[in-house]
Amino acid sequence: MDIHKPKPWHGGRELLKEVGTIVIGVLIALAAEQTVEMLRWRQAVGAGRETLHKEIAFDNGYLRDRITIAPCMDRRLSALTALVADAAAGKPPNGPDGPRPMVPGRLTLVSAWNAEQASQTVTHFPRDELTKLGSYYDLLQSVRAWIEQENDAWASLGALGSKGPIGPQDIALLRRDLQRARYLEYLTVINARRELEHGREFGVQPGPPRKDYIDHICDVPAGAPWSMGQ
């Protein structure tokens, strides 16, 4: 049986040549792998950015509408304040011309942001862009919480449309809810403007206005005593 002995190195130059060939091959393989990975993340970032911009446009469409209806909300709150004062004086605010049920809040979305965070795509965004996106969605989470609280306050104010007298304890609760609704309206509108400014920084225009929503808030039956001149 023949045993093949390893060939001896013919000098240090040949050894360096062999080692250099191996090192260069490894470096080429690593560079190719990094290039593929970079291209994959670049594609993921592009798709993620498009998805986030669509979500921001949707959310800012609602926030732009909130700014549009702000004067109507102020008139409604002023009218309800007068109705609470009447109720406190013993005048029941019921009847066909009483305040209509209203929910100023509307659907807002954060699902795309949550998905991009879970996939770690956002970690590959440029740092400045990621900081601005984080600021937008942090504030949006606060706005969503205010909207939920505001809806609860307006639901409680629906007691003004109930039949029969309203007791002193209910009057106190209605005044509390009016104060909450007014403060939450202020917070929502102020920060809606900030979110729209963030959107402009991303180059994102708000979605189209919802006429049905605006009309629901701003249209008041002619001659209604709570319309405050609308």
Helices and strands, with pairings:
Elements: H1 12-68, H2 70-88, H3 111-118, H4 127-157, H5 168-202, H6 211-218
Q: What does this molecule look like?
A:
The chain has 230 residues and is an all-alpha fold. It is rod-shaped. The longest helix is centred in the N-terminal third of the chain and has 57 residues, at 12-68. 69% of the residues lie in helices and 0% in strands. The protein contains six helices and no strands. Residues 225-230 have low confidence and may be disordered. It has one domain (53-217).
In short:
The chain has helices at residues 12-68, 70-88, 111-118, 127-157, 168-202, 211-218.
> Which strand-content bin applies to the residues?
under 5%
What best-fitting shape do the alpha-carbon axes yield?
rod-shaped
What percent of residues adopt helix (DSSP H or I)?
55-70%
| Helix and strand pattern | HHHHHH
Major sheet characteristics: none
Question: Got a strand count?
Answer: 0
User: Structural class of the secondary elements?
Assistant: mainly alpha
Low-confidence sequence ranges: 225-230
Number of helices: 6
Distance between the termini: 109 Å
* Average of the residue pLDDT scores: 83
Number of structural domains: 1
* Radius of gyration of CA atoms, rounded to a whole number: 31 Å
What are the main properties of this structure?
230 residues; 0% strand; single chain; rod-shaped; 6 helices; mainly alpha; disordered C terminus
